[in-house]
Amino acid sequence: MEQVSQAVAGQDDRVVAFGKLTPTQLKVMRGVCSGLANKQIAYDLGIAEATVKAHMTALMRKLNLRNRTQVAIAAQSALDRAA
Question: What pTM does this model have?
Answer without folding.
Answer: 0.79
